[in-house]
Request: fold
Amino acid sequence: MFSAQYHCHNNCPGDYRLDTIIYNCPQCGDLLEVRHDLDALKQKSAAEWKEIFARRYRATEWPYDSGIWGKKEWVNPHIDDKNIVSLGEGATHLLRAARLGNRIGLENLWVKQCGNSHSGSFKDLGMTVLVSQVQQIIANGQTIRAVVCASTGDTSASLAAYGAAAGIPAAVLLPQNKISAAQLIQPIANGALTLALDTDFDGCMAIVKELAKRPDIYLANSMNSLRLEGQKTIAIEITQQLGWQIPDWVIVPGGNLGNVSAIGRGFLMLRDLGLSDRLPRLVCAQAEKANPLYESYKIGFREFHPKLAEPTAASAIQIGHPVSVKKAIALLKEFNGIVEQASEDELANAAALGDQAGLFNCPHTGVALAALLKLVARGEIKKSERIVVISTANGLKFPEFKIRYHQEKLNEVIAKHKNAPVEIPASVEAVMEAIQRRLL
Reply:
């Protein structure tokens, strides 16, 4: 009954089955996107879809224990349940960040905790869809020698975990000495071929694109639009968790720009199928040292120029040549979107400010929070509006960033919220004096 196909983002003629190994339009070379048969999906009313999604949410019945596969018809209706590779991803908490909101003058601030996932980042949401499709391709008799990706840390961790769960070989290409130790050990522990290259992410990505020209090598980066089908459920989950209400603003960290594109697609699908009647404002937040989309936004998106990304604490978005830039620009225009940037000082202090209100932010969430602070200060975001910040990864994956912040050892950062350990003698009197000095 339900179906989806690849179609060119530029609307070149031709549709391609989802089990076809194809990433770019054969005619124009641009990226493909997954298009669903909306007329078939409309055979169920908005109320019926809401009831289905509510019944499946965090269910114990396979495969609906996954937040992604509970929305299977909207994601990949062609997958046989037996080929689904799931690690319980999705259905992450939408956290009411009341204390942080009060501190910065907002009444209705939420943080979508996408990092509370199996491998610790939002990448799991798309990887379950991609690896499940590979599993089905293999089950249909085609040879896949390996699934490969370029990564700044989180994609490699997710691919390695899902590849290990499926028994599918994975190879990950990482820039040497540019990811955290916690991120590096993840693909190693899960048995992936882990290759550290003397280049940056964009250099790794260029090699992966060449490898993916082979029919037995499957590409796992977000230029594979199957990934975005899983990630678009972020928008659907947010809306469901808010009682089927659309937030006023959604702020997303942006590097390769697949996630902001996916989230936009999710909100459009909700509208097109009658589950909502409006769209939120989208904000893409970039690190100042890797900000090609921001620079394009400042000139009205008239031009886009890739750039060499500089080292930034927000290493997962240290990308100067994002593959999903055209999709991101098109969606930001449709959503009356904004692109903002954050310096190293701004992102580190914004992350620490959130931590003091009970969060434990990765540096990329710090970029999004810094963009939020700027928009509030400029009066673009109003006190009563409902804002959702997308937290993309678990802060536990970035201990060096946290430690160096509180030791005041981060370059270009004045740590306004530092909280270094206090070394004192082992006596009741010394402890009591420290408590009185700090807390009483």
Notes: The CA atoms of residues 239 and 246 lie 6 Å apart. The chain has a mean pLDDT of 96.
